[in-house]
Amino acid sequence: MSANNHHARYAHIVGWGKYVPPNVMTNEELAKKVDTSDAWIRERTGIRERRIATKETTASMALYAAQEAIEVADVDPNDIDLVIVATSSPEFIFPATASIVQDQLGACNAGAFDLSAACSGFVYGIGLAAGMIRSGIHNNVLVIGSETFSKLLNWKDRATCILFGDGAGAVLLQGSDEYGGILSSVLGSDGSGGELLEIPAGGSKNPTSIETVMANMHFVKMNGREVYRFATRIMVDATKEALEKANIPAEELDLLIPHQANTRIIDYAAKALNLPPSKVFVNLEKYGNTSAASIPIALVEAIEDKRVNPGDHLVFVGFGAGLSWGACALEWTEPTIRRATTPQRAAQSKLRYQWSHVKSLGHRVLRRVDAGVSRTLDRIEGKKNGNGHEE
Ligand code: UT7
Q1: Quick check: bond before 95 cis, omega within 30?
Q2: Cα(first)–Cα(last) distance of the chain, in Å?
Q3: Known catalytic residue at 108
């Protein structure tokens, strides 16, 4: 290696995975709960059904998606430097959902934190991870989008409960000297539109109280029309900016993977960008809006549908609460034909995760024993010192 440490590093997506709960809720089922209809929902949003978590949580879905991404990348969890979970429906206010995932993956050498940028969170995470990799600070960064919005919805509010669904998607980004991977990042925020999409209570401004609960302030509240107006404008602008920053001519964009919120928003953006349907990936009819998880889930399905190939130029573009938005342009480099998992490798992975689980339990027990022993020692020392003074 030369003494020149300014050589370019690139951040490539080398692994990908998704998890969606098997429990399906169709529009017809929703129409039994609130005053709506399958026809209205399909016409105004494009959504036919969504997945709703039953036993799953934001952390468990993130874990499944991450495990799949790690398998595809064939990377040892010990070599992961950072775990980012983009979510607005975290397991807790703290600890971070990312720390739970880091522990369960056995990613013992990784830092972990949650990223709160609503539906733009995954794209924010990609921008951050790519920056760290390109600067040489980190080499393997896991970016996960995971959400259980079903727990944050007012199932009596037809303006919001029809839109969202649960799920998770993950990618593993890895550094390489080879050109490609994430080539640009556009991140934006306009906090003046914060109240257009919010959960008003449960934070430090309006801590949970009987009053906040009675007023349904712990549920998602949205001004749909205003968010719609913002979304259509920003999808177009952010996509153009990401392409420009990456020096990719607009006609060389092969696939746009937009945040899956509403087909009308996506169709509007596609038209304004002059993109035929073959260059835009849409799967929201099956999942609704899964917030930070929507782009990674869509990416995995685009790969499965063979719509992503080495050499392709892609753009991820997201928007949401904040208001926030983000886009990144990339050149895809990784072969997308998955290596068949041998039973031996599957068994190895299973064993590795079981072992991480046992180690984690071991750490918890050790921490308790350590605390108990330290307390006892302190007491003995204290007595000794006390006695010493008295004598
Ligand atoms: O990740 C970012 C998350 N947010 C978004 O992406 C949301 C962006 N906004 C949208 O997607 C759309 O604004 C919605 C799908 C939420 C709503 O569509 P719209 O075409 O903007 O409808 P609207 O809010 O203007 O409502 C039209 C009518 C109203 O009735 P009136 O006042 O015209 O009599 C609503 O009360 O539709 C009514 N309506 C419904 N009817 C049946 C609203 N929700 C429903 C419903 N079923 N679920």
Answers
A1: yes
A2: 68
A3: no
Claim to verify: residue 278 and residue 372 sit in the same structural domain: no
Tell me, in angstroms, the distance from the centre of ligand 1 to residue 225's CA.
7
Decide whether any atom of ligand 1 lies within 6 Å of the 98 Cβ: no
Q: Are residues 22 and 50 in the same domain?
A: yes
From the candidates 140, 161, 289, 328, which is the catalytic residue? 289
Is residue 35 in a domain? Answer: yes
Give, for ligand 1, the residue of 30, 228, 230 to mutate: max count of ligand atoms closer than 8 Å to Cβ: 228
- The string of pLDDT tens digits covering residues 339-365 is 667 888 888 888 888 888 899 999 999
Same domain, 255 and 355: no
CATH number of the domain at 307, please.
3.40.47.10
Domain boundaries, position 238 = 10-331
Residues 253 and 313: their CA atoms lie apart, in Å, by: 5
CB atoms within 10 A of CB 10: 21
Residues 165-223 have pLDDT tens digits of: 999 999 999 999 999 999 999 999 999 999 999 999 999 999 999 999 999 999 999 99
Residue 48, helix vs strand vs coil:
coil
